[in-house]
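REVIEWER CHECKLIST
Item 1: Sequence provided? yes
Item 2: Single chain? yes
Item 3: Sequence as submitted:
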Amino acid sequence: MALQDILTIYKALSDETRLKILKLLENGELCVCDLVAAFDTVQPKISFHLAILKDAGLIKDRKQGKWSYYSLKDDDLFKRLLILSTIERVTEHDIITEKERLAKFIEEKAEKKIIRICKC
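Item 4: Structure as written out by the authors:
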C-alpha cells in the first residue's frame, strides 16, 4: 500500500459524517435513501461522503436497479482493522439521532408509507 493510499484512508476517516456512516454500516448493508433519512439531508451530500469512503476502499456498493446499497468492505485486513478500531470509538450516543431517524424510516418503508421516496 502506497503512502497516498494511506493518506486517502485517513482523509476519509477525518469527517464526522463519514465516521457516523461507517458506524451505521457496522450493522449491515444500507440503501442510499436509508442514509439520507438517517442524516436528514439531501442525496447528493450523502453520495459525496459515500464516494470518498468508497475511493478510500472502506466501503463497497451493490447496484439493484436504480438503487445503490453500501456495506463495509472487509477484504483488506489493514483497512478492516482500521475501520473496526475507529468506529469502536464512535459510541451509540454519538449516533443516537441518526439511528432513531433510520429506524423510523425503515419502519415507514416496511409499512409502504414512503413509496414515492424510496422503493428499495
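Item 5: Key structural point noted by reviewer: The longest helix spans residues 96-110.
Item 6: Recommendation: ____
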